[in-house]
Design a protein that fits this description.
alpha/beta; five-stranded mixed beta sheet; Nucleotidyltransferase, domain 5; single chain; globular; 12 strands; binds zinc ion; 21% strand; 9 helices
């Protein structure tokens, strides 16, 4: 049995063919390589045909920003230029004549953690994806929390401050993403170093931290403080066994994890101290957690 997993991101799309246990082969392509959605489907068709596996694919799982399990669509994903609403499930199942499941990318990351990663023994946990945006996949009582419209887990657009001058891409002010995502880290850095004239990236700030630049180190510690507060809020609400941190920013955890732990411990309700673990996801190093997570619904019935 072969399954196709697709992880659609704003920058890269990752494809992977899996059997029941592991990735058999995979590929990463630039998202902006495809000017429209049909071009993307044709590319996948060709790729599978070249690998001589086109007719052996039994099901397709897709993880995407704003991907909705119930409707099978992506709606108003800010980093995708394929139109306001794309019906992924319908298009893929028509083209390939196999069952298709769509999840949002953070939920796919949580499914990967549960079935391929370090959350195997946990019934209640949260996976935070930190990258261009901030997402979360939440497991409660051994089930992925979807919400009534399939939109649960949008922690990136909960407010950390209502007096903030930081305006979010969603139109609100003070969202978590303005403090903890890649653009959040850049804004934190500009707090300490206002003289920068060139275009900053989070990656550049990590490189500056590597060289012990004080502004970069302080910016990442501040990011850790914000993340610690976000996690303490989540612990107060969900009382999970563990919080996993994943995504590109998780790779730089050595610069902010101490602050996360201290700030979380300080802000969590005293009765909840020592009830949780904060874990850097070991799957984030593979880069293919989203691909693995997207095929989980076909491997396990309990989804
Ligand atoms: Zn927002």
């Amino acid at each position: 049995m072969y399954l196709l997993g697709i992880d659609i991101g704003g920058t890269y799309i990752k494809l992977g063919v899996c059997d029941k246990e592991k990735l058999v082969f995979s590929e990463k392509v630039n998202t902006n390589k495809f000017s429209d959605f049909n071009e993307f489907i044709c590319y996948i068709d060709n790729w599978l045909t070249l690998k001589n596996i086109r007719d052996k694919i039994q099901s397709i799982g897709i993880g995407a920003p704003n991907g909705n399990y119930y409707t099978g669509t992506i709606e108003e994903a800010p980093n995708l230029k394929w139109g306001k609403k794309i019906n992924l499930r319908e298009s893929f199942s028509k083209h390939f004549s196999v069952p298709v499941v769509v999840h949002n990318d953070a939920n796919a990351a949580a499914l990967a953690e549960k079935y391929f990663g370090d959350a195997k023994n946990f019934t209640d946990f949260i996976v935070l994806t930190l990258g261009t945006g901030v997402g979360s996949g939440i497991f409660v009582n051994n089930k992925l929390l979807l919400g009534v419209n399939g939109l649960a887990g949008e922690v990136g657009h909960t407010a950390l401050s209502i007096e903030s001058k930081r305006k979010c891409t969603c139109g609100k002010i003070g969202c978590v993403e303005e403090y903890i995502s890649e653009r959040g880290i850049i804004k934190n850095y500009l707090n300490f170093n206002k003289k920068i004239k060139y275009n900053l990236t989070a990656e550049l700030i990590f490189k500056k931290a590597e060289k012990n630049e004080l502004s970069a180190l302080r910016a990442l510690q501040l990011t850790g403080n914000y993340l610690g507060i976000l996690i303490s809020n989540l612990i107060n609400i969900f009382n999970p066994q563990a919080i996993f941190i994943t995504g590109g920013i998780a790779m730089a955890h050595k610069y902010f994890l101490d602050n996360v732990l201290a700030k979380c411990n300080e802000n969590v309700l005293p009765i909840l101290r020592k009830t949780y673990k904060i874990i850097i996801s070991s799957l984030s190093h593979t880069g293919y957690a989203g691909v693995l997570g997207s095929v989980v619904p076909f491997l396990y019935e309990n989804i």
